[in-house]
Amino acid sequence: MKNNQLLLVSRPLGIPKENNFEVHNSEVNPLKSGEFLIKNHFLSIDPGMRSWMAEGKSYINPIRLGGVMRAMGTGVVVDSRSPDLKVGDFITTDLGVQEYALFDKNNITARGIQTYLYKLQDKIIPQQTYLGALGIPGMTAYFGMLAVGKIQAGETVVVSGAAGGVGTVAGQIAKLKGCTVIGITSSDEKCQDLVNNFHFDYAINYKTPNWREQIMAISPSGVNLFFDNVGGNILNIMLSCMAKGGRVIISGAASQYNNMAFMRGPANYLSLIVNRAKMEGFINMDYYDQFNDARIEIAEWIKSGLINPDNFVIKGGVNDFLEIFNNMFAGKNTGKMVMQLKTLN
Ligand SMILES: NC(=O)c1ccc[n+]([C@@H]2O[C@H](COP(=O)([O-])OP(=O)(O)OC[C@H]3O[C@@H](n4cnc5c(N)ncnc54)[C@H](OP(=O)(O)O)[C@@H]3O)[C@@H](O)[C@H]2O)c1
Q1: Is residue 199 within 8 Å of 175, Cβ to Cβ?
Q2: Residue 108's pLDDT is what?
Q3: What does the pLDDT look like over 284-329, one tens digit per residue?
Q4: Domain 136-285, CATH 3.40.50.2300 — does that match?
């Protein structure tokens, strides 16, 4: 059986380009004892992938040059010599940008993302939801809002990157907990989507010059919690909008990942003193042992209509990864950007 794999062959400078990758066609070897083979169906397209392409360790090791591009995914077991998984089981783990992924369960960490392997249990929920609201984005939103942000009913919460995978879920969790929720995104169309389809109270287009004034008009005494997915200028301006005792939760900085050599820090940080406010970063993996309970709770919210889990699904082969990845940074997605894999040949 043939497998098309996308290899990272050089480290990008700025926006990743075609010459950073190569499609490699190889034969899938017969399975050894303990191994299992997954046919990949959906791949998660994450801003964090940009940091995995770079040299140097961040919260996980970089992808090695010549290695398969790392990607969380879902797929089905098509062959198994492992007692833990049988043909027909659906799983999610770090499958990589390839058509098939060969694993030894004991060695699942080899490709990089911790010991995160989850057998999809709930047959009603579509498998791509395990890359969005029930996957890493959902876990990030859940623990960022509840465990780190400790949101309280009645608070005003602002989410940047609000129309993204983490942002849509983070905003909806704040809403169902009784907060007033304002989303920040890049177009009027995406703003309407947030209010009409993702339960946000308000949505603000950061490309309009007076967007700070719009936030202050909604919340004149300031923002209690800012959940930041994008960093840069939006973080800087939001620091000047905080209420007394406000919390700034740093989930990520998507606006900076393609230009890490010239990272912009927030100039308005003295607002933290004036407002007795705090700024705190976190990594979802620190809550790994609580993921199952969080998944159960979020699945209930989805089934009762409190959370819209819609992803932004694009069909493509492994050779289309780069275009889809760069489109995510350009803000083409509303909901989690997910690639539905089609086999090349
Ligand atoms: N801490 C953790 O454990 C953890 C785990 C997973 C993800 N994250 C972080 O969460 C954030 C969101 O991830 P996601 O997977 O949900 O991605 P996403 O938000 O679906 O996609 C990235 C979004 O960033 C926005 N963006 C890109 N460049 C921008 C710029 N220059 N200025 C403002 N906005 C920009 C775009 O939305 P617009 O159209 O609105 O511009 C784009 O859609 C990322 O920063 C990621 O690193 C953190």
Answers
A1: yes
A2: 56
A3: 999 999 999 999 999 999 999 999 999 999 999 999 999 999 999 9
A4: no
Domain boundaries, the chain: 2-132+311-341, 136-285
Model confidence at 107, in pLDDT bands (50, 70, 90)? low
Binning pLDDT at 50, 70 and 90, where does residue 106 land? low
Contact 176, 197 (CB under 8 A): no
Q: Which among 186, 248, 332 is the best mutation to test ligand 1's pocket, defined by most ligand atoms within 8 Å of the CB?
A: 186
* Angle between helix 165-176 and helix 291-303 axes, rounded to 10 deg: 70
71 close to 3: Cβ distance less than 8 angstroms: no
pTM of the model: 0.95
Answer yes or no: is pLDDT of 157 > 60: yes
- Choose one of 134, 206, 230, 291 to mutate for the ligand 1 pocket test, by most ligand atoms within 8 angstroms of C-beta: 230
What residue has token string 């008009």? 217
Q: Whose CA is nearest to atom 9 of ligand 1?
A: 252
CB atoms within 10 A of CB 89: 15
112 to each of 125, 195, 331, how far by Cα in Å?
Answer: 27, 37, 27
CATH number among 3.20.20.80, 3.90.1150.10, 3.90.180.10, 1.20.1260.10, domain 2-132+311-341: 3.90.180.10
Distances (CA, A) of 2 to 29, 30, 90, 98, 343: 9, 12, 21, 11, 10
